[in-house]
Specification:
single chain, alpha+beta, 27% helix, 24% strand
């Protein structure tokens, strides 16, 4: 009996609804969907879901891109604020002419780039843009030695009463290497400091004290009045640190840079023996990965030169007693951040510069009293 019941139940379910008759035949015949109907509904639902998914993804990607641009611009502003804040402590800022050809005019020597007096690791693939001297407190070890009652422990040639010494600060624009490991953006700004002492209180190799040799305007060479003598016995050691990444470099749509292009403010003071104008740094534009000249991080240093001598024997040198009005320019690029294009995709880079951010600018007036004397007025 049970076998006949299950066999009858199976036949009832397999029977086509259209063939069912009787009391419940019409009800069963109106239930269910055909295969075609299911396929049509599934296709429509798939299209709707795909469209909604596309819209959501586009909105998320757009938000991510805007977040990447905003974060990059915020980091550029923070980096600019950091450099300008430290620049306010400067007692002497080098113009771009000196960074490219260090004192060849005064010392009658072969043009020597300023980078040759810095550690090789600092200038490898990087171009010095901003270099200046500032005062830096002695390390605690040196302070303890200066405070010791035993004079034999005091550092030789160190003015302990000052409690501080001169430090050379150099900001450079480093280009993206060929095979980067943790490199994200196109270029970055690095910071290097040449101090008189290291953290252990030892003298730093290659450090030449400008306060002792009175050679700020010709460092590390001796003062021009004493002859062309390089006082740096050995090249300094050490490394630089990254201040900010995602600095723009691969700008495509900008016109070709010409030597006559004015990237610095116009104007300056002119006198009988002095002439002042803004000197751009670096003097030579930086090449990007597409071998095009770019200026995305540069400085304009107001440099007042002083002419000495009479007749046909004259010399022009930077006047170290003058104030330094410095204008900094910085431009970032969000390439390499989440939601943006790849940094190494040159084909995409050449299409447009939509990921390059607006240029930021700040102006700093250093108020050094170095070399100044009080007047009777």
């Amino acid at each position: 009996m049970a076998k006949n019941f299950f066999s009858h139940l199976k036949k009832s379910f397999l029977r086509s609804p259209q063939r069912r008759t009787g009391r419940y035949g019409a009800y069963y015949a109106s239930q269910g969907f055909t295969l075609v109907e299911l396929l049509v509904v599934t296709a429509i639902a798939g299209i709707i879901v795909a469209g909604l998914t596309f819209i959501v993804i586009q909105m998320m990607t757009s938000d991510q891109r805007e977040a990447s641009r905003s974060e990059t611009q915020r980091e550029m502003q923070l980096a600019l604020n950091y450099m300008s804040s430290e620049l306010q402590e400067a007692i002497y800022v080098y113009p771009g002419t000196y960074l490219e050809d260090s004192k060849s005019e005064d010392l009658n020597t072969t043009d020597i780039p300023f980078a040759n007096y810095l550690p090789a690791s600092v200038t490898n693939g990087a171009v010095p843009v901003l270099a200046f001297w500032k005062l830096q407190p002695f390390p605690d070890v040196v302070k303890q030695r200066c405070a010791a009652t035993n004079a034999a422990t005091n550092p030789v040639g160190v003015a302990c009463l000052n409690g501080q010494s001169y430090a050379l600060v150099v900001y450079s624009l480093a280009r993206k290497p060929a095979n980067p490991t943790v490199w994200k953006g196109q270029a970055r700004i690095t910071r290097y400091v040449l101090s008189q002492f290291d953290s252990s209180g030892n003298l730093t190799p290659g450090y030449v004290d400008p306060s002792v040799n009175n050679n700020l305007a010709s460092w590390p060479w001796a003062d021009p009045g004493t002859g062309a003598v390089n006082l740096q016995a050995t090249r300094p050691t050490g490394s630089s640190f990254t201040l900010v990444d995602f600095v723009s470099l691969d700008i495509i749509n900008t016109p070709t840079i010409k030597p006559t292009d004015n990237f610095c403010p116009a104007g300056g003071a002119t006198g009988t023996t002095t002439t002042g104008s803004y000197d751009i740094s670096p003097k030579t534009p930086v090449k990007n990965s597409l071998n095009k000249d770019t200026r995305t991080f540069y400085a304009c240093v107001f440099s007042q030169t002083q002419t000495t001598g009479t007749g046909t024997v004259t010399a022009t040198r930077v006047d170290p007693t003058q104030y330094r009005d410095v204008v900094l320019f910085l431009r970032g690029s969000a390439l390499g951040r989440p939601g943006m294009r790849r940094v190494d995709d040159k084909e995409e880079i050449t299409k447009n510069d939509q990921d390059v951010l607006p240029t930021l600018e700040t102006r700093v007036l250093t108020r050094s009293v170095l070399g100044r004397r009080p007047t009777a007025d």
